[in-house]
UniProtKB/TrEMBL annotation:
The protein's name: Peptide chain release factor 3
Domain Tr-type G: 10-278
Gene name for this UniProt entry: prfC
Subcellular location per the Swiss-Prot or TrEMBL entry: Cytoplasm
Entry keyword set: Cytoplasm, GTP-binding, Nucleotide-binding, Protein biosynthesis
Family: Belongs to the TRAFAC class translation factor GTPase superfamily. Classic translation factor GTPase family. PrfC subfamily.
Binding site for GTP: 19-26, 87-91, 141-144
Taxonomy, superkingdom: Bacteria
Main location as per UniProt: cytoplasm
Pfam families named in the record: EF-G_D2 (PF22042), GTP_EFTU (PF00009), RF3_C (PF16658)
Job of this protein: Increases the formation of ribosomal termination complexes and stimulates activities of RF-1 and RF-2. It binds guanine nucleotides and has strong preference for UGA stop codons. It may interact directly with the ribosome. The stimulation of RF-1 and RF-2 is significantly reduced by GTP and GDP, but not by GMP.
Origin species: Nicoliella lavandulae
Amino acid sequence: MANALEQNVAKRRTFAIISHPDAGKTTITEQLLLYGGIVREAGTVKGKKSGNFAKSDWMEIEQKRGISVTSSVMQFDYQGKRINILDTPGHEDFSEDTYRTLMAVDSAVMVIDAAKGIEAQTKKLFKICKMRGIPIFTFMNKMDRDSRDPIELISQLEDVLGIEGYPMNWPIGSGKVLRGLYDRYNNRVALYRPKEGTEKYLPLNDEGELQVASDLPNDEVYQDAKANMDLIQEAGNQFDLEKIKKGDQTPVFFGSALANFGVETFLNAYLDFAPMPGDHENTLDDEEVQPTNPNFSGFVFKIQANMNPRHRDRIAFVRVCSGEFERGMDVKLERTDKKLRLSNVTEFVANTRENVENAVAGDIIGLYDTGNFQIGDTIYTGKQAVKFPPLPQFTPELFMRVSAKNVMKQKSFHKGIHQLVQEGAVQLYTTYSTGDYILGAVGQLQFEVFQFRMQNEYNSEVVMEPLGHKIARWIDPDQLDESMSSSRNILVRDTHDQPLFLFENTFAERWFHDKYPDVKLMSKL
Ligand code: GDP
């Protein structure tokens, strides 16, 4: 008989939705919340923008503080499981935090606009999930609109992302002629907008033929879909759970989030295969920390600064990896070896109080932070010290030259910049030629947060000169010759003293390759 902690952990499913802006992430999230019985007015997932908050106490707290916690983690219960959805902001909010959030999930759901196929941001986020080797589930959205050829969509997964697609169902038409889904996983046809009073699902027999009388087999759209499904059955990828677990194969579901078609089928199948929280490596002894270990442990994957000048505090988001979180508990911060009491300064990321009482592996807690935490920090209880692996560094794409507006205030400028860099807010580079500071980020918002916090927390007004998009490539210091730097690249060093070039564009990078064919250039993630 499993103990209470084991039972609780086994219930957890923690994932993020990765997608390109406008693919339908918000729409599908809202549908999922509805299945979880969390009724919100449409638009509240994006409530930060619309200002349309549901009336719960702690949303009010959030609103006052101007920190969007609710939209960062959404928790609900569904069919005996406790589901945590971690938001990965897109649009202008895209930042390194978005990437780091993917370090805190056990699986990912990739939403693709079926009319557009795989888009840029999906590709970037996918890369991180792939690196982690976590299961990835795909939802091909907007089938109520004319879509690309589904066969093309499946092969694109392999060609562009390098992951096998296994269609769990197949669309019968799209747009105006969308008839339904040929659902081979549940062996049934799901009808899109069935006539009132008729069945939503038509059962299939073992041969995949309709078991009940229907006009569908005479419909060309159905015949087409069936022929494709048969072809895929014969010549397509075999369903392979081991590959799915490692992120080498993705189960693919078609549907329409807006029409709430195929979403429930997706959610149920997702829960059949999505993993519960797994082990995490303790780098101090090379052993794995099991989620059911009674000692508490977790790591900080995101620090959200408060943009409200009246509140300097920040929230450190902690992914729980083992044990049980209790209000007021004492933990050790591994980096400093100091004890911290997580008392009433602690806020939880949850939507009801009872969720709060047992935050276990897979759950996310938000700690009000006055400067104790850094990105990647481990906290733990018990005699055995724990340190989780450092969070990876990401290759920045946007750059700014930065300096102090007031040359007399160099001290606060340097203090601020170094603290914010340490915290993971932005990345810092120094030019070889002049020793100038250049900031790197994956999203524009990081610069804005940086500028704001320099002013408000360190009383340092900064001057920022945009350098735009650059391609950052690291070079082996032994191969470096400073004369390799030209007008088409900037030679800088990172905070670990490693040299890298910031290339103007791919053309400049290729030119460099041609000129120095033996020099190996490397990127981070
Ligand atoms: P996000 O940026 O990925 O969060 O995308 P949203 O969920 O905000 O959706 C972007 C737009 O696409 C909105 O206008 C949605 O109403 C629309 N949309 C989302 N899902 C569907 C769908 O299944 N079908 C259609 N036709 N539109 C959709």
